[in-house]
Amino acid sequence: MKVKIESVAFKGYGVGRLSGKVIFVPYTVTGDEVSVTLVEERKDFSIAKLKEIITPSPWRVTPPCPYFGYCGGCQWQHIEPMIQGELKKEILKNLFQRLGRLREPPSLSLIPSLSPYGYRARIQLKVDGKRMGFFEG
């Protein structure tokens, strides 16, 4: 199935529509045209798995990490770093409007990191029996 990604939602999932129904697609960005496989259907929305990028968004970049998409740690590396901040502000604004019922949410400013990568100072590891590490996304 083909989907045109219209926006980005919480968790960095791209948002598109199939027959009028909202569909969330991980690892996509506004402007992508993608081929997907449905993995979960609910009453009001569906979740799909990205199969192929048919037409990439101008905001799409090659993720620098070879584990992108597998470890589950970075959901935004495929999006140009300056655009990431703008998309996150838009998500927050939409949450204020939808959940907080604020017509005019507060003005949001962004303090960007000096480097778009390698700035985190903590990790979250999963434990499974005697094994510990990241998980495959």
Would you kindly provide a written description of the structure presented here, covering whatever features stand out?
There is one protein chain. With 137 residues, this protein is an alpha+beta fold. The protein has one domain (2-133): Nucleic acid-binding proteins (OB fold (Dihydrolipoamide Acetyltransferase, E2P), Beta Barrel), CATH 2.40.50. 13% of the residues lie in helices and 30% in strands. The chain contains one helix and eight strands, in the order ββββββαββ. The protein has one helix at 81-98, and strands spanning 2-4, 7-8, 14-18, 21-25, 33-41, 45-55, 126-128, 131-133. A six-stranded mixed beta sheet has the order 1-5-6-4-3-2. A two-stranded antiparallel sheet has the order 7-8. β3 (14-18) and β4 form a beta hairpin. The protein is globular. The two termini are 22 Å apart. The mean pLDDT is 87.
Furnish the topology, listing elements before pairings:
Elements: E1 2-4, E2 7-8, E3 14-18, E4 21-25, E5 33-41, E6 45-55, H1 81-98, E7 126-128, E8 131-133
Parallel strand pairs: 4-6
Antiparallel strand pairs: 1-5, 2-3, 3-4, 5-6, 7-8
Helix percentage: 10-25%
Label the structural class.
alpha+beta
What is the number of independent domains? Answer: 1
Our measurement of the CA-to-CA distance between the termini, rounded to an integer number of angstroms, reads 22 Å
Count of extended strands: 8
Q: What fold name stands as the CATH topology?
A: OB fold (Dihydrolipoamide Acetyltransferase, E2P)
The CATH first-level class comes to: Mainly Beta
Question: Strand count, sense and closure of the main sheet?
Answer: 6 strands, mixed
In percent terms, what proportion of residues is strand? 25-35%
Outline type? globular
